[in-house]
Amino acid sequence: xxxxxxxxxxxxxxxxxxxxxxxxxxxxxxxxxxxxxxxxxxxxxxxxxxxxxxxxxxxxxxxxxxxxxxxxxxxxxxxxxxxxxxxxxxxxxxxxxxxxxxxxxxxxxxxxxxxxxxxxxxxxxxxxxxxxxxxxxxxxxxxxxxxxxxxxxxxxxxxxxxxxxxxxxxxxxxxxxxxxxxxxxxxxxxxxxxxxxxxxxxxxxxxxxxxxxxxxxxxxxxxxxxxxxxxxxxxxxxxxxxxxxxxxxxxxxxxxxxxxxxxxxxxxxxxxxxxxxxxxxxxxxxxxxxxxxxxxxxxxxxxxxxxxxxxxxxxxxxxxxxxxxxxxxxxxxxxxxxxxxxxxx
Length: 345
Known about the structure:
The protein is of the alpha+beta class. The chain has ten helices and eleven strands.
């Protein structure tokens, strides 16, 4: 009997298990759990599988395992003959266990905020967001230290189950009103993760598609030609306090802000005066429009998308979380896409 995953498609915890199964190219089948709105995970039948009433649950023959982190350890130990994802080295093993605990505890605050915003769970969402932001800062600081050493991943030289465990709820945090703008090293890591072979997306996390950023940026931002090094090469840190900012440089984007951004300006609860227009060059399908409109609705942004033969223009106005939406738009642009002009005021 093969592997069976009791799965809910929109669950970040189930997603991390699916990621490892795909990375290891393990055949498995799923049994869908009606987590919402059916609350099937709280039924007597499901509680026989997992008395905690949580997903995911993995069955491998007679073995039944609950808890995503425990399942990752089991799969890596049993099926990863290279020991890449869970090395035998005691130091690496201990560090991976440390980050698994972090993923199952501190980072779950981001999951709580997402449950509030997406599924209407009753909880103190501001407290959850604050806890998640504190956890993100810890991880961002760790990844900054890793970058200084020329490393990409949380532990060691290659991705491990530590990276897999931490990735989903960070990548999905926008669904809970938590942006990534203050965490440049976290964004670099997420981008590298999405470039991994056999990476697959889920709702809220797009596939990676590279693009060259353009020949000029209007307004106060510095100008970079297509042949210039990426902005990330300059290692200029993002201003965590975004007040009175004029030319904010993130790890891979330049934003020109023509008036002060008050407290909370980059994320939910910021001012609503910001407008942006971006022009993409490349071949686009109508799925591009659907993606942008869906994200705009999620973030309460007014958006217009115009498609021509080899160009897409996105105009948006609304809460300042539109920056995150437009970054995601760029991520799904064609590989040969070039953004040759954009402005924000």
